[in-house]
Amino acid sequence: MEKRELLDRAAADAQERLLLGRVWDKYDQCRRRNIPVCTEFLSPQEQAAAERLLHMLGAEESYLLWGGYDGAERRQIHFLPDWQSEPDAQAIRCLRCTFYEAGKLTHRDFLGSLMGLGLTREKIGDILVSEQSADVLVSASVADHLLREWDAAGRTALRVAEIDPSELSVPVQQTKILRDTVSSLRLDSVLSVGFSTSRGKAAEAVETGRVQVNWADCQKPDRLLRQGDVISVRGAGKCRLTEVGGTTKKGRVFITVERYL
To answer: pTM to 2 decimals?
Structure first.
């Protein structure tokens, strides 16, 4: 299958096609020159699309996803030559911003100030906000610029310094564990448990295009899920099907869902 045809098949729209084209170029560069190559930071949805393409190319063993720490949401794809087994440690740098007034700044404040400095979203990884500081993971190409120029978020003054990845302060994700039984592992059934809503309303959310499964749009309420699948609802958050257990005497399935708060 030719490259153009494969990209058309893999991409959901024109914007995603451009992204996948860039990912493919990085993969080819690594293969041709036998050197490490990485993308910029990708969102979970972009990562899922890229992984679908790489699966179609039979390249599952040629890359790693890395965002600077275990559990990162925004990650780069690192294509590795045959002589390298770990991502380039210099591809991501960690900056800590400290400020005086506790709890004053939010994720949006930091992201807005970075975009105001001319950065694109793909240059910025996760932003980990604490009471009087935020740790920001960025592409190596923009780190020095930020160390020189980034001194405020809105009207709040910042002190910015580079830290070692081992010093990152990762906030604990607040979750709620929900256990129930469902007639099957249909998307609408699991969604109704995860978001404490009726199955009818869950099906409506799916059919109106508000739901993603593993960061890919899904409008089929009867899609069968598997343990580990992540369900996202636009404007409502996300949950994960963490465990599929046995069945009751009436044939219903025990499930455990973790809701992210």
So the answer is: 0.86
